[in-house]
Recover the amino acids of this structure.
């Protein structure tokens, strides 16, 4: 996951910073890309995983949606040394297959200081990942 997969629809990430004492609010940057939605296979669970490389957090996941025709909207919120990546799905206009959907995504967060960072990934109101990682160069 060293680079975001080509051909993915890249959306502009919204960056909201509040109560940011331990993170440098001026240097955090969120990059986000989503794949095409598919009809969700039976038993397919939502996922999120994180890795640390070159001082950045790399997140990949899969979000369950009402239909495959969804646009994912990421919001990065900080609270002290905690990061919360909240991803919500918004229906795309037009016709959509009549099935439950699943959409893959990839994200990176750069501009972090070295040290421990708690990362939470939420899909709408569902907490998918809650982990503390160490960022270093």
């Amino acid at each position: 996951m060293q680079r975001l997969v080509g051909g993915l629809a890249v959306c502009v990430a919204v960056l909201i910073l509040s109560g940011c004492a331990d993170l440098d609010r001026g240097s955090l940057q969120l990059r986000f890309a989503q794949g095409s939605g598919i009809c969700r296979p039976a038993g397919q669970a939502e996922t999120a995983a994180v890795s640390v490389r070159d001082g950045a957090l790399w997140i990949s996941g899969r979000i369950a949606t009402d239909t495959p025709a969804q646009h994912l909207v990421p919001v990065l919120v900080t609270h002290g040394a905690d990061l919360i990546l909240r991803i919500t799905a918004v229906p795309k206009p037009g016709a959509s297959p009549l099935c439950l959907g699943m959409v893959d995504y990839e994200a990176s967060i750069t501009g972090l200081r070295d040290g421990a960072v708690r990362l939470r990934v939420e899909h709408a109101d569902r907490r998918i990942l809650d982990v503390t990682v160490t960022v270093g160069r």
The chain has a mean pLDDT of 84. Residues 9-129 form one domain. Residues 92 and 122 are 21 Å apart (CA to CA).
